[in-house]
Amino acid sequence: MAKRCNEKRVMYEAVIWGKKGARINFISQGIIVTPLAIDEFNGIRGDFYKNMFAKCPTGRLGTADEVANVAELLMSDRGAFITGADFLIDGGATASYFYGSLLPQE
Fold this sequence. Notes:
By secondary structure, the protein is mainly alpha-helical.
């Protein structure tokens, strides 16, 4: 719910700030390889995370560089026509919960 609210807030702010010549976008990242993520991966919920990434389309965690690549695009002239958008960077984990092997079973 919180991410959906952020998505709508970014759209709203893009309209407001666009009148001032600014662009507003949002990056919704999944689990990215960091020391904290490694602790989670090896902690009590580790099996949950390992299963999630084994069954998502990319089959792995993301890296900070991969998130930075999207941020670079958005801040560059190549992204000049992008505003009010939410970029989901999670290796397809969310898609797998709706349409793939992570779909909750009843």
